[in-house]
Design brief:
single chain, alpha/beta, five-stranded mixed β-sheet, globular
């Protein structure tokens, strides 16, 4: 099953099990895209000498895609070993939208850049999204 098919199927599924979510994470975060773990971020920071970062906040209908595009265009991603993306959102971010965002990020980074992406629900976020990105070299 392709990851896009899994996303379409999951959009229509209620109460997915932990095992299913783990399997989906394995599909989503392959080929250099890894799920976030505190040790992943610590290792990225320890193994880097330079950091370029930016934060973008968007409110429009296609806020996720426009925010990640503006973020990637506003950061020097050339020769980045790691690209850490932290997404603050209101709980409405779907797997399908995350997949679109990851596809877009992949267009901006080099093939050997490890992408570490983390999202969390923030009660102060209403109908907007805030994304912080750090390019570690």
């Amino acid at each position: 099953m392709k990851s896009s098919e899994i996303f379409d199927w999951l959009e229509n599924t209620t109460n997915p099990t932990h095992k299913l979510i783990t399997e989906i994470n394995n599909v989503i975060y392959k080929d250099g895209i890894i799920s976030v773990d505190k040790s992943d971020i610590e290792n990225a920071l320890k193994n880097s000498n330079e950091c370029d970062y930016n934060t973008v906040r968007k409110y429009n209908d296609d806020k996720e895609i426009s925010a990640i595009k503006e973020l990637c265009e506003g950061i020097d991603l050339k020769e980045a070993k790691y690209f850490i993306v932290i997404i603050s959102q209101n709980g409405s971010l779907t797997f399908a939208k995350t997949h679109e965002m990851l596809d877009l990020i992949s267009e901006y980074v080099e093939s050997d850049t490890q992408i570490i992406i983390w999202d969390y629900k923030e009660d102060r976020i209403w109908n907007d999204i805030k994304i912080t990105g750090m390019a570690l070299k």
